[in-house]
Every structure is written in C-alpha cells, then in structure tokens.
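=== Given protein ===
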Amino acid sequence: MKVILQQDVKGQGKRGQLVNVSDGYARNFLFPKKLAVEANAENVNTMKMQDKAKKAQMAAEKAEAEAIAKQLKDVVVKIPAKAGTNGRLFGAVTSKEVSDALQAQHGIAIAKSKIVQEEPIKAFGAYQLKCKLGYEISGTVHVEVLEES
C-alpha cells in the first residue's frame, strides 16, 4: 500500500515522502498514530501543493538573505561604550548589542545568534563581524566602538 508520511518514521522515510508499506503496517500502526495517510489522488495533490509552497517560501527567504547581505556592505554600526584606562571597555560588546544597534540605526533585523564573534570586543576601534544569514549566505557587519560621552 502506498502512503504519504505525515511525520518522520524510523526505517520508512521522512515527512512528506511517498512510500510503499505493507497493508497491515499501514492500517495497524501508521494510520492510528496519524503518522501517514493513504496515497489517494487528493492526498498526493495536496502533498505536491505543499512541496511547491515550501520551495517558494525557501526561495523567498534566500532572496531576503541575499538582500540583507547586500545592505550590510554599506552599513557601519556605531556602538557607544564606557571605558576605563588604556581604552579598555567595562565589560564587552556582545552580539546582542550589535543586533540591537543594527536594528535601531539602520532598520536591519538580524538575530543575535546569527552574528558570529570569535572573541568578545573589549576595546575601542573598528571591527568586522560575520553574519550567517542562512542558505549558505553570509554578510559582514562593520562595527565601530566609540567612547561614550
């Protein structure tokens, strides 16, 4: 019997796949637990429409990530910070502060988890931070840490 999996099933396949299983396995295990539905014409058509919508959504998200990467090239984020002697900061500039400043100054929303910092920023100056925007697209955020007046 051909069925469309509604969830990942170990040993059978992933969600959305059309698989061939025995009649008893489908009737006694997959259908009662709502892990699969019968592969009739209506369900196959629904599966194809969902795949098409998912691909369109992924293409839109990829285009958005590319647009954000393009915007980041021309942007410099200025972050004021308090400092002690020798230009050392009290604390450090975190990716959350960079994300908030980017949103406030330029209206570009990037989650703090997508901003990659090899080491925390603990001194004044200019820095370049890498942003992983998804779909193997990355951008560079130019950050300037300035003395708070």
Notes: The CA atoms of residues 128 and 142 lie 5 Å apart. The chain is about 35% helix and 30% strand. The longest helix spans residues 41-72.
